[in-house]
UniProtKB/TrEMBL annotation:
InterPro entries: Peripla_BP_I, SBP_2_dom. GO terms for cellular component: cell envelope. It comes from Paenibacillus abyssi. It is found in: Cell envelope. This is Periplasmic binding protein domain-containing protein.
């Protein structure tokens, strides 16, 4: 047989062999073997772990053996928003505890209102004296004054992690914390509200702003909104009033503005509570809420269960889900990685955000419901 014929025969045999293997693979009805690494599910969290295998789990468990992390959680006020963040933290604490054996002592303390910074400072100093491993803090206090408090705590051995703070407003080396876990208030909140408004109003309309307390949050979100609508000269802010981040004051502010400016197309409440108050004010005046083509658009920002229910009912038009569940999960993971495993973590960790309306509310609501249903393990 010639060399060319022998090569052709080998090629034919190879093609036949590959074809038979493909056919066998397509027609194999045998049950697949069980994975050598069973998935582990955290009770109360209903989450299948995807983070490493059994070998990884063993070594991390050894590193975490006998560890109890004492963590303080101090938001600027008690609210539905910060409750969702805390429940997000519960889901991650349960997962880490169930899988790696680390235990948590978690304490929450919030001032009665955003301006009560003194009580928040006293709380941080108390937890530092008790040698807490980490303090999670979001504060409306003066940036430089709070930085001094944080530095003192870290010098005493307590790690500071900020959350829900507009880190984009400062240089990274000015942030006296291990990490800031949140979102970019300028581009991930105010800006995307402006883009959404421009799309729905086709670049033309009168706008009312219901704004929170003067400070870093309100400044960053407003700058983002103004940047987004700047290309649309026919989108005009005709009125603005403070609502101090609560629903009843948001409603009162909207009532005052609507009386002075009844011909309005959109009301932007800086947070969701004020936006829901504005929605109530529109209804109380007998004005039409946005139905997809006509009426007054009301939009806020947070990602609340109550807001999602209002969207489903056709009242609140939209809100920005700023990731409260993910904030809670990510700051607990950051504390674990830093305090237990000794890793560095990024100075700024931003979670995903999205504008939520009737088109996509179900996904966001389901994620929030999951977190709110999770109780922290004893």
């Amino acid at each position: 047989m010639s060399g060319r014929k022998r090569m052709s025969m080998k090629l034919i045999m190879l093609v036949v062999l590959v074809a038979s293997l493909v056919i066998a693979g397509c027609t194999n009805n045998e049950a697949p073997e069980e994975s050598a690494t069973p998935s582990v599910v955290a009770e109360g969290s209903s989450t299948a772990y995807q983070w490493g295998d059994q070998n990884f789990e063993q070594f991390v468990g050894t590193a975490a053996e006998g560890r109890t992390l004492k963590i303080g959680f101090t938001p600027p006020a008690a609210s539905e928003f910060y409750d969702i963040i805390e429940h997000g933290a519960n889901t991650m604490m349960n997962e880490l505890s169930d899988r790696f054996g680390v235990k948590f002592e978690f304490e929450m303390s919030a001032p009665n209102e955003h301006q009560s910074v003194e009580s928040q400072v006293a709380t941080i100093e108390n937890w530092t004296a008790k040698q807490y491993d980490a303090i999670l803090v979001s504060s409306a206090g003066d940036f430089d004054a709070m930085n001094a408090v944080y530095q003192k705590a870290m010098d005493a051995g307590t790690a500071i992690f900020m959350f829900n703070m507009p880190a984009e407003m400062w240089e990274e080396d000015e942030l006296k914390a291990v990490s800031v876990i949140g979102y970019n208030n300028h581009y991930q909140a105010g800006y995307i509200v402006g883009k959404y408004a421009a799309e729905k109003l086709q670049g033309k309309g009168n706008i009312l702003l219901i704004w929170g307390l003067p400070g870093h949050w309100s400044t960053s979100r407003k700058n983002g909104f103004l940047e987004a609508i700047a290309p649309y000269p026919d989108m005009k802010i005709v009125g603005e009033q403070r609502g101090d981040y609560v629903r009843d004051k948001g409603m009162q502010a909207a009532e005052n503005l609507l009386q002075a400016h009844p011909d309005v197309d959109l009301i932007y409440g800086e947070n969701e509570e004020m936006a829901q108050g504005a929605t109530q004010a529109v209804e109380a005046r007998g004005l039409k809420l946005w139905d997809g083509t006509d009426g007054i658009i009301t939009i806020g920002a947070d990602g609340l269960k109550s807001g999602y229910e209002s969207i489903r009912q056709g009242k609140l038009t939209a809100t920005v889900n700023v990731g409260p569940v993910d904030m809670g999960r990510e700051f607990i993971k950051a504390v674990f990685m830093h305090e237990v495993l000794g890793y560095t973590v990024d100075k700024i960790i931003n979670v995903p955000t999205a504008v939520i309306d009737k088109e996509n509310v179900d996904v966001a609501a389901a994620y929030t419901d999951w977190a709110l249903s999770t109780k922290r393990n004893d």
